[in-house]
Specification:
The complex is a heterodimer of chains A (786) and B (225).
Chain A: H1 3-14, H2 16-53, E1 59-67, H3 70-75, E2 80-86, E3 88-95, E4 102-109, E5 120-124, E6 134-138, H4 139-145, E7 152-157, E8 160-171, E9 191-197, H5 198-204, E10 210-218, H6 224-235, E11 243-245, H7 250-291, H8 293-301, H9 306-346, H10 358-385, H11 388-392, H12 404-408, H13 416-427, H14 429-467, E12 472-481, H15 484-489, E13 494-509, E14 512-521, E15 530-531, E16 537-538, E17 545-548, H16 549-555, E18 562-567, E19 574-583, E20 591-594, H17 595-601, E21 607-615, H18 620-627, E22 633-638, H19 639-648, H20 650-693, H21 698-734, H22 748-774, H23 778-783
Parallel strand pairs in A: 4-9, 6-8, 14-20, 17-19
Antiparallel strand pairs in A: 1-10, 1-11, 2-10, 3-4, 3-7, 5-8, 6-9, 7-8, 12-21, 12-22, 13-14, 13-18, 13-21, 15-16, 17-20, 18-19
Chain B: E1 2-7, E2 10-16, E3 27-31, H1 38-45, E4 57-58, E5 61-62, H2 68-78, E6 79-82, H3 94-102, H4 111-117, H5 133-145, E7 151-155, H6 163-180, E8 183-188, E9 199-204, E10 207-213
Helix pairs in contact in B: 3-4, 3-5, 4-5, 5-6
The chains are: A alpha+beta (786), B alpha/beta (225).
Chain lengths: 786, 225
């Protein structure tokens, strides 16, 4: 090995603590990138593959009922390539051994081989042709209950009970995200999708020779909007519920939102981590170059070229980069595998090929090299290009001056060591500011870690403890008279019932449209309330419609504007309605009206499609059993289950991010603080040793070094706290999706944790440096040249 | 040849017009107090620094007109340096310090050979911090001569050493000068060392103030101070 390379490895070994700290920060950045980018890439590629393989349609529409002959007219729409009709039935189900009601939908299997939405059979088989008591079930439900093919379920279809034998467990891109109507998070235990033979379902659902859903594929050049318009026109007489393209298909839409979040994760976090790593490399390599000024000069004196010396130091940086990138890729792959598995818990992909593709590995290497060189290249070339005669001279004594703090502040009464601290900080303001910036940055990233937890807790608190506080929610098959509620109130344990009227609609303002549910709730509701930003209940205006602010933003509508509402309940009526208010909600997007106002809008009497119940906690379980026996009840949910499934699925995901985030942030904190201390020590060990020779005690010398550090850290922490809050704001606004708006909530405990973590990192670093101060070589100082 | 350092507010005239020749195989001692311009002269001769005026020729090469590349090549092929404060690379052993130079030289001797020449054959694998001052200085001599330079420049080679150790170091320089025939310039402010030279150049205040020629070179062992 060449002597210069030997020097390189010995230098690295001597600085191993710092090398590891920097490599870890770099690794954190690369790992976050690899994790998010590879997961995103794998999910997107899997999605594309699945759509092609299982023939995911491009055009969808539900309707009340149309004779089979209408299908030919749909097929004739220009741009439509293939069409298929289906029967979809809402059903309530009962599973032996599970005492809660299960709601779900049943999808017809085509008589011939299906063109669209083909199923991947994960276990068992599809129902045999001609069997009307067999069904296949979605894998989410089977997985949640750990069921194997062959079990029995009881389904209430169209008010009639029917025994079904489940022959197979299947999955399909159509139901990657399975959300029960009216719920905000997937609940695989109490929601399922079944597939039955077409004939059997037609018979059970009163659809013989007819269909109530149509799907189609489109020409490459066809415009979805045009096809939607024409399909709507054809289906209008048959109670069409509004056609839509892929972008409004539930699974597709939720996945797209998730992809947005992953994209943010794969850019923002790595950018932060990598800039910190670049900063650290700059500080540490800069210091190394300063200490090796003489060595560089001597090597040049003996004929080493500027380039060869620059390469030497670039190599040194690159060794750190290589360690960081390798660790990062390995770590990112591991985390990405875990994250993908987590996604599979919520998103029921028929399969997921997780892989880290070469492009991502190459990009990681490029990012690492860029971070490494951007932090050091300039300093390295400047040092290597220095004239050897100049470099061999001792560096000129740094020019100090009386610090501002001393002149204007209480500094005049400071002791000599304290003056040294402030003069040293002021002498190199840029360096001091950079150290402060580095520590502040790690403080802010630590806050970001805790912020997710705070935000999730706040979302849950706002949504499930302030806005929606029913014990049980009930959904009927269709609108029922208000009087039906009395039968609910009379059930044992029910203390109070509040009706709700829900209707699906296409909301339109100018050219923007959005499919959402309009919920008619009670004006002085107790169980379901709208809240202002302080979480205080707000009164619903007597007339008009109130939108979730995120929905208003998507539609570009403001309070006072008049919006178009196209009802998707089969009537397909189109009406105008003024927007009379906006509310902030963190979960989902909904439009609200007063129920009496909605009743009038729908030109109906005092009716409801569901109810919120307050019940005695002890009787909640018993109530389920009673409720599911009521034929008109399509679905039942409890707040307890919603809470549980929220934490099991989406919150679990967010909190896992938060955990990684905190882990990485701690790495950065330690990396920055440790390096700051080590660099300070190496810069000033001569000076400190000289002071020891002059008679300063170890304590005084330690005070000079660590006092400076303490000043910097205590200046950095408040800045970091403010910056962390701002970062949380940026993160929250980027993470805005239709699923969630993350509230910008940072609890005092999160601030305290971040500050404490920095203080602990400082104490540990100080401890390690303190030992070195004890062993300063006093004789060496007197001997060696300045 | 002149050298002026521009120090911002003041200009320092380090060399105010020096006219000098150095011959192959010659041992020249540059004598003078601090600030007389010795080190500046040596740095310019070695291609570490540039003259402000005048011309410096190495054989046919005009060092004053040479660019950074040519100067680097000049140092790499022809010049050996010995410094007062050793300037060894602390992370490399004695042998590796010498190898750092032989690796980039044209026809160097083996690093071991160079170390044996200065009497350090048994200390090759020691790090600088494990060597005494005299031993470290001898490593720098080995490092300087390993490339078989035609110019050997020594800046206060004994400045940091006691007299006994200093003599061992001077012996090494003397031996190298005789055996390799390199034009050797030794800077010192110690007049007693002048005896080992062919020619003694006295410098003061940026001028050559006097030149003495020794009829016989004294063996460094016979020197004392």
């Amino acid at each position: 090995m060449r002597a210069l390379d030997i020097k390189l490895f010995r230098d690295l070994w001597r600085m191993r603590g710092q090398v590891i700290a920097i490599a870890l920060v770099l690794a954190a950045g690369i790992a976050t990138y690899v994790m998010a980018a590879s997961t995103l890439d794998s999910l997107q590629r899997t999605q594309t593959m699945l759509y092609a393989e299982y023939r995911f349609p491009e055009l969808f529409s539900g309707l009340k009922r149309a004779p089979a002959s209408v299908l030919a007219r749909v097929a004739a729409i220009p741009g439509v390539v293939e069409v298929e009709s289906r029967v979809i039935a809402q059903a309530s189900m009962y599973l032996d051994g599970f005492d809660q009601p299960v709601s779900g939908q049943i999808v017809s299997l085509p008589k011939l081989a299906s063109q669209f939405n083909q199923l991947r059979v994960r276990a068992g088989r599809l129902p045999e042709a001609g069997r009307d008591n067999e069904a296949a079930v979605s894998d989410g439900f089977a997985g949640a209950h750990k069921l194997q093919p062959g079990f029995a379920m009881e389904a209430t279809i169209n008010g009639r009970k029917r025994k079904l034998t489940v022959t197979g467990i299947v999955s399909t891109p159509e139901f990657i995200y399975q959300l029960a109507p009216g719920s905000i998070v997937p609940d695989f235990k109490s929601y399922c999708v079944l597939w039955m033979n077409r004939d059997a379902l037609e018979g059970a659902y009163n659809m013989t020779g007819a269909f109530n859903e149509v799907v189609a594929s489109l020409d490459r050049d066809a415009r979805v909007e045009d096809a939607v318009q024409q399909l709507d026109a054809i289906l209008k007489p048959y109670g069409g519920l509004g056609a839509y393209g892929r972008k409004d298909q539930v699974s597709h839409r939720y996945l797209s939102e998730e992809f947005k979040q992953l994209t943010m994760m794969s850019t923002m976090f790595p950018a932060i981590f990598l800039s910190v790593a670049a900063f650290l490399l700059n500080v540490v390599i800069g210091r190394l170059l300063a200490t090796q000024r003489g060595q560089i000069a001597i090597l040049k004196a003996f004929g080493y070229t500027t380039a060869s010396l620059a390469i030497h130091f670039v190599k040194l940086t690159m060794v750190i980069v290589v360690i960081g990138v390798a660790l990062g890729i390995a770590g990112g792959r591991w985390l990405g595998g875990g994250l993908s598995a987590l996604y599979m818990d919520v998103y029921k992909f028929p399969y997921l090929h997780y892989e880290v593709r070469a492009e991502i590995v190459l990009a990681s290497i490029a990012f690492g090299v860029i971070a490494g060189t951007s932090g050091t290249l300039f300093a390295v070339f400047r040092a290597a290009a220095e004239s050897p005669a100049v470099a061999m001279q001792p560096a000129p004594p740094a020019s100090y001056r009386v610090s501002l703090f001393e002149r204007f502040g209480p500094g005049r009464w400071l002791s000599q060591p304290t003056r040294m601290i402030f003069r040293n900080i002021e002498r190199r303001p840029v360096k001091s500011l950079l150290s402060i910036a580095g520590v502040a940055m790690s403080t802010s990233i630590l806050i970001l870690g805790g912020f997710w937890g705070d935000a999730v807790d706040y979302m849950v608190f706002a949504q499930l403890r302030r806005a929606q506080i029913e014990d049980i929610s009930v959904t009927f098959f269709g609108p029922v008279s208000r009087r039906a509620l009395y039968s609910l109130t009379s059930l044992p344990g029910v203390s109070y019932a509040e009706p709700v009227r829900s209707v699906p609609a296409r909301l339109r303002y100018e050219h923007r449209t959005y499919r959402a549910a309009i919920q008619g709730i009670e004006s002085s509701g107790v169980l379901r309330r709208l809240l202002d930003t302080n979480l205080d209940p707000v009164e619903l205006p007597a007339e008009g419609i109130v939108l979730t602010d995120h929905l208003a933003t998507m539609l570009g509508v403001r309070s006072g504007d008049v919006m178009t509402v196209e009802l998707l309940d089969g009537s397909r009526e189109i009406r105008e309605i003024p927007v009379t208010g906006l509310v902030s909600e963190f979960i989902g997007v909904t439009a609200y009206m007063r129920r009496d106002s909605l009743n009038r809008f729908l030109r109906e009497g005092d009716s409801a499609t569901g109810a919120y119940l307050a019940a005695d906690p002890a009787s909640v379980d018993h109530l389920y059993t009673l409720l599911k026996k009521i034929p008109a009840v399509a679905g039942t949910g409890t707040r307890a289950r919603t809470l549980a499934s929220f934490y099991e699925t989406l919150a679990a995901q967010m909190l896992t991010f938060a955990f990684f985030n905190t882990l990485l942030a701690s790495t950065i904190a330690i990396g920055v603080v440790y390096n700051t201390v080590r660099v300070a020590l190496s810069e000033r060990s001569r000076e400190l040793a000289s002071l020891r020779v002059l008679g300063y005690t170890r304590g005084e010398v330690t005070y000079i070094l660590l006092g400076e550090l303490a000043v910097l850290i205590f200046a950095a922490i408040p800045i970091g706290l403010v910056f962390g809050r701002a970062l949380a704001g940026i993160m929250a606004s980027t993470a805005q999706t239709e699923l969630f708006r993350v509230p910008i909530i940072v609890e005092p405990s999160t601030y305290a944790f971040a500050a404490l973590a920095i203080v602990v990192a400082t104490l540990l670093s100080a401890l390690s440096v303190g030992r070195k101060i004890h062993h300063l070589d006093l004789v060496e100082v007197l001997k060696a040249r300045e | 040849m002149t050298k002026v350092y521009d120090m911002g507010e003041v200009s320092v005239h380090a060399l105010r017009g020096v006219d000098l020749e150095l011959f192959g195989g010659e041992m020249m001692v540059l004598l003078g107090p601090s600030g007389s311009g010795k080190s500046t002269l040596l740095n310019i001769l070695g291609g570490l620094d540039r003259a402000s005026g005048g011309t410096v020729l190495y054989r046919d090469l005009d060092i004053t007109a040479a660019g950074d590349k040519e100067l680097t090549q000049y140092r790499r092929s022809h010049v050996g340096f010995v410094f007062q404060f050793y300037n060894l690379i602390p992370s490399l052993t004695a042998l590796e310090n010498v190898a750092a130079v032989t690796e980039i030289a044209d026809k160097p001797m083996r690093p071991e050979e160079a170390l044996e020449l200065v009497g350090l054959g048994d200390r090759m694998h020691h790090f600088p911090s494990q060597l005494s001052g005299g031993q470290q200085q001898r490593v720098t001599i080995a490092r300087a001569i390993a490339k078989k330079p035609s110019v050997l420049l020594c800046d206060e080679p004994t400045g940091a050493l006691d007299s006994e150790t200093g003599i061992v170091v001077l012996e090494a320089i003397d031996r190298v000068n005789r055996e390799l025939g390199a034009a050797t310039a030794v800077i010192t402010h110690n007049a007693d060392i002048a005896g080992m030279a062919d020619r003694v150049v006295h410098m003061s205040n940026g001028h050559v103030s006097a030149v003495d020629i020794n009829k016989t070179r004294r063996n460094p062992r016979d020197l004392h101070w």
